[in-house]
Amino acid sequence: MADRRRINGPVGTTNPPIYDDAPEKQSEGVKVARSRPANVIRRMYLKTGVTPSASGSAYLEIESSGNGGSGLKLSCSVHGPRALPRSTPFSPHIILSTHVKFAPFATKQRRGYIRDPIERDLGTHLETALRGSIIADRWPKSGVDIIISIVEGEQDRETSKAQGIEAWDTMNALSGCITVASAALADAGIDCVDTVAGGVAALVQDAGDDAAPSIVVDPIPSEHEKVLAACCIAYLPTRQEVTNLWFKGDLPASDMDVYTQLIEKGIQASKSANRVLVDCLNETVG
Amino acid sequence: MARHQNIRNLDYEAELEEYGAFSDEEEEELSPEDQVRMREGTAQVLEALGVEAHKVTKAQIEESLWHYYWDVDKTITYLISKYIDPPKKPAKTAPPKTAPKQDGTCILGKGSGPWWPTSLSRSSPVALCEPSLTTSCQAAIASASRQSFAHLFRDLPWGNIPPERQAVLIPPPQLPGGLLGGSGAPPKMSKLQQLAAARKKKAEEKSASGEVEQTQVKMTELTVNDNQASKENRPLAGVFGKRVKISETTAQGRIPLTMAEPTRPEIPQAQAPEASPSQHQEEDPIDPEPAVAPPKAQPSAFASTLFGPSSDSPKRRPREVFALPYMAISSYSPDAFGKPSPDDVVLAAQAKVATAGKKSANVHNKKGSSSADGVTNQVSQLKIDDTPLPKSRNLNVLSEFEKQKGKKTASFVVVGHVDAGKSTMMGRLLLDLNVVDQRTVDKLRKEAEKIGKTSFALAWVLDQRHEERSRGVTIDIATNRFETETTSFTILDAPGHRDFIPNMIAGASQADFAILVIDASTGAFESGLKGQTREHSLLIRSMGVSRIIVAVNKLDTVNWSQERFDEITHQVSGFLTATGFQPKNIAFVPVSGLHGDNLVRKSTDPAASWYTGKTLVEELEASEPSARALAKPLRMTISEVMRTPQSSISITGRIDAGSLQMGDALLVQPSGEKAYVKSLQVDDGEPADWAVAGQNVVLHLSNIDPIHVRVGDIVCDPAKPIQCVDTFTLKALAFDILMPMQVDVHRGRLHAAGKIEAIDAILDKVTGKVTKKKPMIVKPGTVSRVRVTLHSKVPLEAGQRVVLRSGGQTVAAGLLE
Fold first, then answer.
1. Helix (H, G, I), strand (E, B), or coil: what is residue B44?
2. A152 SS3 class
3. How many structural domains is chain A composed of?
4. CA A88 to each of CA A85, A93, A146, B36, B399: distance values in angstroms, whole numbers, following the listed order
5. Is A47 in Cβ contact with B299 (below 8 Å)?
6. From CA B785, how far away is CA B580, in angstroms rounded?
7. pLDDT one-digit tens code per residue, B508-567
8. In Å, how far from its chain's centre is CA B109?
9. Which of the given ranges, A11-20, A149-158, B218-227, B803-812, has the highest pLDDT on average?
10. What integer pLDDT is reported at residue A202 of this predicted model?
């Protein structure tokens, strides 16, 4: 029996509001086709020096696909280089630690406050991508923390859930993470061999199964019938080096060239992103 | 030693001869057209030399012709300088020969054959030891091998460094502010400083680019495959030039990274901006990256709010006029006071309705009842599968009950002000009736002594919770039972504290009659009469209990004073009569709960000899339990849910109406889930086949999930279920001022939050006629008809008694209509 002994609470009750969870329009039916050319990435907005308390910080926003859906919004802050705690064993080079966290409200499916496996995965990929660009041995016995908050996840939320394409969105998120982290590192003044930027290319199939799959850059999964494979690449343009490559999906077994082409396009996307990155840094310096 | 000898004896001449012979052999193998050309060339040279011709042999001419590859002019120059008019330096070593069939090879190698290690491993030995094979097939292999070598060395510049690889040394930029980190904003500078810095930068840029250009010019001059290169370098240049060319062609076709390469992103500082023309050609025609427009977006609303408007967008001027806040609300209209106020509207409407009040009330009632009828009709039409489990014996419970000649059963509730001695009196009663043995009481007494509450030992017989014992008050209903010769009684010991009135209501709703315990000691009685003595008697009367036995307790503390007893009797009977109890249903017994006088046995105290009436137990036996509603549909309020070995869900409670038997289907409301009676126990835990109204039973249920069964739920007959309602009309006796307000509705264990929606009428207490319609408030002590709305649906039906409480006070009690 409930405790109703001594504490007489207020007598009245209020019914909690109940929100109708059903989607207003059937989003699967309405499909927005890709309006950009296949080899053009979406426009993005990048700004460094947004968090005054951090050593370096950056904010990246990739504009929405144009159908009222939300874009990707990332905020990155870099703390360090700073001395490692005494307990840490000696390290001849800087120790990178990356944290990627979706805000609880970033996606349709609310995220918890504890990092889930996807976020951990993103963090690991990001670390690999950045490790290739940082000149790590300039900073012995020190560490740097790179913290990325995904303020708004990719996609307009309804479609993402309805089509089960959240996995592909993760790739777009990673490429954004790499670019914004690189900008924040530059803002923090940590020595790098080059600015690293992320790019995504995907093998997609449009308009029915009989059409031949094509390769597009910076894909929005909801705009395509089906995404067969995708890869996310972190690329150093002046050194022509790939620091991180994440490939996912199935390729048609007949054509071995597709893989190479996919990566080629990924590099192309990465270069385009790098252009924005360099522009932004130039703006800050000049 | 032997080996030294060997080496010493080695004939170098002979060894070298072999190589010479080898080269001779090669010369002999000149192709026929070469031999023709050789002949022609020799003739031309001899002709050109004229008189000097005797100074050179034909062999010399042929050799040099071969060397210069039938370039007659060069041969002549060479021969003149070498043999005819020699300079101070004599013999010049023959320049290294190159393979004669160079012309077609690069075309041959371009598209054919694998370009990577297979060809290398196969053809490299051939190429290494036989550099001058002449057959076309061999040449093809050789060229293929060369191509693969070219690829091997592709990345080595060999002197002709492409412009994009040429290093530009840029002085390290000054870190802003001289320190690491920061928000990226440059340090503050005065205008003069900025101007100076800008000039300096410009000058640096200019000089840097100038230098770069100079270096580039020099580098192009250095390039070996340039046309202006010296003739001695020519063969070498040819080879390397070819290598480079091959590497380029290979790259064009096969190495993806190089192919996809567009223009390089500009390095921030001054830098040679023009890409080499070859690269422009290589660039993909649909390259998405025109050097002009990087895909930069405007900040979104979110970003611009975060970082302020971007620098190029016009700055919004702060508003100079501030609107009053309510002007922005859409419902605001400046002429609000031109119309009648909401209160006026309401009053006008009420005035209008007052005339047709009765009619509308009737209409409302009719509507309510008709809709309820409709629902019951529909429900009765519903075919609920309530076939009992095969276990059922299909008894006719009522005839069984009549056949049974057992003891009467009755339950009574013990109420009274806090610390009146209710629990102690019941403990003593149980002890004297040998329901509890002396040993248990002794044990309890010992425990009570430990915490310094010796007098509570008897109360602890019923108060078994830890909190009840430590606080010394009853908190929840305690049930126990005892039997006399004629009747079996169930005790419901109610808490006296006003905070636990809901529990007391739960107990009172299960009782046939009540014992009101009154503390006779000085002061206690008076405070009780103002307190819970009064509230409890009001409650039990409104719960439908009509028989009450007043136990005047603790008379031993006033030395069994008859005056005190009479005074109390007088006051209480007056009060109880006013509450609505009939005088014949009120009995008074002077008792001492602690010592047990006049409970089971007559008091032996001489001071109490004036009392000659019945003892408390005799009074209880004389009480007739109220009539049971046996023929009505089954209703039972669940007072406890527990797990037992017999079933995962066992419920206890008192059957309010109807009857049930083993195997019956039951409906639990408000969850609306069906269950079956697996087995049941009646009264004191005896297994039974059936039970009827008025009995306290333990039902072991099956086929139901525990989450659907809660304390306060009602178990009913699936064929005639109780309705769950959230609005009902109530004929209520007000204990406090009633107005439309928030109330708690209590019915036995059940309680729900709700509010008084409207007060329809004030009724006459005796006749039940309407004396006033639509009153604003109801004064204490008057009867009224109120409409109550609940926040959730609860099982209620007409004829049930409910209590309305608000803010910890009982405000009204009444009967559902």
1. helix
2. strand
3. 1
4. 6, 13, 18, 84, 87
5. yes
6. 19
7. 888 888 899 888 888 788 887 777 788 888 888 888 788 889 988 888 888 888 888 888
8. 66
9. B803-812
10. 92
Q: Tell me which amino acid residue B630 is.
A: L
Cis-peptide, bond into residue B390, ω within 30° of zero: no
Domain ranges in chain B?
Answer: 402-622, 629-716, 724-816
Tokens of B700: 């072991």
Q: Are B447 and B454 in contact, with CB atoms under 8 Å apart?
A: no
User: Using the beta-carbon criterion (under 8 Å), do A47 and B298 form an inter-chain contact?
Assistant: no
Poorest-confidence range of A17-21, B608-612, B774-778?
Answer: A17-21
Q: What angle do CA A58, A62, A66 make, to 5 degrees?
A: 155
pLDDT at B318: 52
Q: Has residue B392 got a pLDDT over 90?
A: no
Q: How far is CA B12 from the centre of its chain?
A: 92
Dihedral of alpha carbons B497, B543, B656, B636, sign: negative
Triad B540, B544, B549: Cα angle to 5°: 55
Q: What is the domain extent for residue A79?
A: 44-285
ipTM: 0.76
Could you tell me the CATH number of the domain that includes residue A111? 3.30.230.70
Nearest CA in chain B to A59: B303
Residue of B nearest to A57 (CA): B183
Which two three-digit tokens encode residue B198? Answer: 């800008």
Provide the token pair at B342: 């909401």
B346 φ, ψ (degrees, to nearest 5):
-65, -45
Interfacial A residues in 257-286 facing B (CB < 8 Å): 260-261, 263-264, 267-268, 271-272, 274-276, 278-282, 284-285
In angstroms, the CA B163 to CA B160 distance is 9
Does any CB of chain A come closer than 8 Å to the CB of residue B193? no
Which amino acid appears at position B473 of this protein? V
In a domain, A144, yes or no: yes
Q: Is residue A134 part of a domain?
A: yes
Q: Are B596 and B553 in contact (CB under 8 A)?
A: no
Please answer yes or no on whether B289 and A282 come within 8 Å at the CB atom.
Answer: no
A161-188 per-residue burial string, b: 16 or more CB within 10 A, e: under 16:
eebebbebbbbbbbbbbbbbbbbbbbbb
Interface residue B174 vs chain A (CB under 8 A): no
Interface probe, candidates B165, B179, B289, chain A, greatest A C-beta count within 10 A: B289
Q: What pLDDT is stored for residue B329 in this prediction?
A: 62
Instruction: Tell me which architecture the domain covering B402-622 has in CATH.
Output: 3-Layer(aba) Sandwich (3.40)
- Give A30-33 contacts, CB < 8 A, sequence gap 24+: A31/A222, A31/A223, A32/A65, A32/A66, A32/A67, A32/A222, A32/A223, A33/A206, A33/A223
B264: nearest CB among A13, A55, A237: A237
Signed CA dihedral, B537, B543, B548, B550: sign only: negative
Q: B724-816: same fold as B629-716?
A: yes
Chain A residues with CB under 8 Å of B261 CB are: 240
* Contact in structure between A58 and A46 (CB atoms under 8 Å): yes
For chain A, the average pLDDT equals 84
The bridge status of strand B487-493 relative to strand A226-236 is: unpaired
**CA dihedral sign of residues B305, B309, B313, B317:** positive
Please tell me the pTM assigned to this model: 0.43
Give B629-716's CATH code, choosing from 2.60.40.1910, 2.40.30.10, 1.10.8.420, 3.40.50.300. 2.40.30.10
First-to-last CA distance in chain A? 72
Report the alpha-carbon distance of residue B376 to residue B380 in Å, rounded.
Answer: 6
- Name the CATH topology of B724-816: Elongation Factor Tu (Ef-tu); domain 3 (2.40.30)
Chain-chain contact of A49 with B183 (C-beta, under 8 angstroms): yes
A279 with B500: Cβ contact below 8 A: no
Q: Which of A6, A7, A11, A262 best tests the B interface by mutation, with the highest count of B CBs <10 A?
A: A11
